[in-house]
Amino acid sequence: MADRQVNVLVCVKRVPDVSGEVLLTEDGQQVDARHVGFTLSEHESCAVELAVQVATAGQGQVTVMSVGSPESVEQIRTALGTGCSAAVLVETDPVSLGPADVAHEIAEVVRDHEARGPIHDSGGYDLVLLGNDAADSGDFQVPVRLAHELGRPVVTGIQAISVADGVGHLRGEGPDGTETYEVPLPAVVSVMEGGVEPRYPTISGRMKAKKVEIETRSATREPVGSGRLRMTLPPPAHSTAQVLGEGPGAAVAVVDLLHDLGVAR
Predict the structure, then answer these.
(1) Average pLDDT for residues 97-112, to the nearest whole number?
(2) 196-223: per-residue pLDDT in tens?
(3) Which domain holds residue 74?
(4) Angle at 147 between CA 146 and CA 153, to 5 degrees
(5) Domains in the chain: how many in total?
(6) Which pLDDT score is estimated for 25?
């Protein structure tokens, strides 16, 4: 359990709900979302869940924010329906943004809330949680850029978080196994899916979410953009088939194949 109130800012992005073939726009700058819906990425759904868990344990509150189009309200309401209690939307054209732009706007919200007496009377955000990377563009720079701008420690690829004595205890899976960290708060953390099971809004949660007033802001500067030339898709994987034989004569070849696969002995 946390020893004092712990308040969390969790950042989400409206991304295309692509479960099948991915298509790109003609200019190669983004995923073509004309024929699909929109959602939160798995990384960010897990970040929302961890934010709610940490804040609940620390008797604090969770603010959800997004930097993007007015339609991002849909994803914000989803997060509100799962336990977040306040929300911020920085309205801007998401196509024009790069990682530096997104990080800057998040940092402006953090600084502004701390300077004017935060919306939860908390004195600031102990943790800022983000998804590890963007599900549509693959950008993974925002957490590090945000931490640099705020002058806070950052840890990426985290799947479990707890707070005690002003320290964040973090766990993630690295290339050599489980990795654990202890970082002083406030801190920035990016979340990978897999550590928790995201909850989904209940009917009562959705009703409460509709009543929350979303703080709407404008971008504070002209975007510098991503500098991206274009996105590309990997070539489709080719499948191959091997004909083992025809009729009863193929039985021996099948047995040999099963032996090679370790299925039969």
Answers:
(1) 95
(2) 999 888 889 899 999 999 999 999 999 8
(3) 8-218
(4) 165
(5) 1
(6) 65
Contact 178, 171 (CB under 8 A): yes
Is residue 14 one of the residues assigned to a domain?
A: yes
Give the C-alpha separation, 64 to 78, whole Å: 10
Answer whether residue 264 shows pLDDT above 70: no
Domain at 153, CATH number: 3.40.50.620
pLDDT of residue 120: 44
Residue 255 has pLDDT above 90, yes or no: no
Looking up tokens 């707890």 gives: 162
Q: Are 169 and 109 in contact (CB under 8 A)?
A: no
Each residue of 46-83: pLDDT tens digit? 999 999 999 999 889 999 999 999 999 999 999 999 99
Give residue 60's pLDDT.
92
- Name the residue among 135, 115, 133 with its Cα closest to residue 125: 115
Q: Taking the CB of residue 16, how many other CB atoms lie within 10 A of it?
A: 19
